[in-house]
Design goal:
Layout lengths: L32 E2 L14 H4 L7 E8 L3 E2 L3 E4 L10 H5 L2 E3 L2 E5 L5 E4 L1 H14 L7 H19 L8 E10 L11 E9 L11 E5 L25 H9 L4 E6 L4 E5 L2 E8 L6 E5 L11 H13 L5 H6 L5 E4 L4 H9 L3 E8 L3 E10 L2 E4 L9 H14 L11 E4 L3
Parallel strand pairs: 1-4, 10-11, 10-17, 14-15
Antiparallel strand pairs: 2-3, 2-4, 2-9, 5-8, 6-7, 6-8, 7-19, 8-9, 11-12, 12-13, 13-14, 13-16, 16-17, 17-18
Helix pairs in contact: 3-4
Amino acid sequence: MAPIAVTPPCEPVTTITKPYSHGLAELDASLLQTTLTTSPRPVPALGSPEMASQRTCTDHMIQATWNSETGWSAPTLTPYGPLSLMPTASCLHYATECFEGMKLYRGFDGKLRLFRPDLNCKRMLVSTNRISLPSFPPDELLKLIAKLCATDGPRWLPKDRPGSFLYIRPTMIATDPALGVQRPTEAMLYVILTCFAPMDDVPGGMKLLASQDDMVRAWPGGFGYAKVGANYGPSLVAQGEARRRGYHQILWLFGDECYVTEAGASNFFVVWRTKEEGKLQLVTASLDERIVLDGVTRRSVLELARTRLADASAAAEEEGLEPLEVVERRYTMFEVEEAAREGRLVEAFGAGTAWFVAPVGKIHFRGKDIEVPQSEGDGGRYTKAVKRWLKGIMWGEEGSEAHEWGYVVEEK
C-alpha cells in the first residue's frame, strides 16, 4: 500500500491549513462540558514508589469522540477512569493509535508552564494523518490540554514543589467496532496527566547498546517520523535485551552502513571534531529520510545551539564554550567509533521529553565498548549547557521567565 500524503516533519508544521474535518463538526474547546470529581485522589510524595510507577494519574481527563458522519462531539472534562471499548475496536487489532508526550512544569517563579506545546499539537495532527485518524485544529487541542492542566495542576504540582512536573499524554485511538481492515469511522481523543519520575540523572551517563543487523526501528517510506504506537511495541524485545545486559537504551542503527538514528525513544547527538580540520561540530541525524522523529526537544536543542553556540556569541563566551557548527546529516556508527579511537569524540547525549537531556557514557557496538568522554564527570560541557538553558525556560528560572517557548497555564 502506498503511503498516504502527509506534511513532511522537516517542513514547518505551520503550513498545515484548515479545513480539518471537511464540513463535519470540528473539535471545539469552547464546547467543553465539565464534571469535577467528588473523590480527589491522594497526591504522591516526591520520590515515592507511586510517583515513579508511571501508573498514578491525576483526578481528571479530557475526552472527545468522533465519527465519520457527524465529526467531533463536544469534549468533556470528567473524573479519571476506565475507557469503554468493544473487543473488536480497530485500535486493538490494527494499531490505529497515536499519542504525544509533553510535560507540565511547576516553575521556580511559582507559575505552571508547558514547553512549546503548539509543536506537540501540530505533530499529533501529522501522526493522525499518517494512520487514517481524524484531523483536528491543533489550537483547539492545546486549549483542552491547558484546561486539564489548569484544573489538576494546582493540587498535583503545588507551589511548594518548584522544579517538579507531570507527564501529559494526549492520545487518539480508533474505536470503530468493525473488524474489517479499513479507515476507521469512529475515534476517541483523550488526555491524561501522569506522575513521572525524572530520568535524566544517570550516574556515569546512559549506557547504550547498538542495535543488531536484524533489528530495525524505522525505514524510509514507513512511519518513523510519526508518534504512533506501532513504532514502540516491536522495539520492546530489543529494549528488554538491552536492559538484561545492563544497558539503559538501544541505540538504533539502520542499514548495512549502520546509520545512527535514535537512542531508545530519544533523539541522539554527538559532539566531535572533524577528521580533516578539527572543526567542532554538534551532529544529529537528518529528518530527510523520515525515519527519525522530529522531536520538540531535538528541535529546541538545535535552535539554541545555532543561536548561542554557532559563533563567538555572548552566550558562548559567558559559558566559556568553544563555538561549534550544528550539522544535521546521515552519519554512521563507524564514524562515531573512529572519532572515539582518534580522540575526536567530545561527548554525546540523548534528548527527548521523557529522558530530557541525558549524557551518554558508553556505547556497545559489535562486541566492543566505546567510552564517551564526560568532561565534567556527570556529563559534557555542551550537554550541561544545553540542559541548563532548557531548564531555565521550562521552569521559569531567572532570565527565562518570559521566554516565548514557555506557555504559562493560568491557574483556577
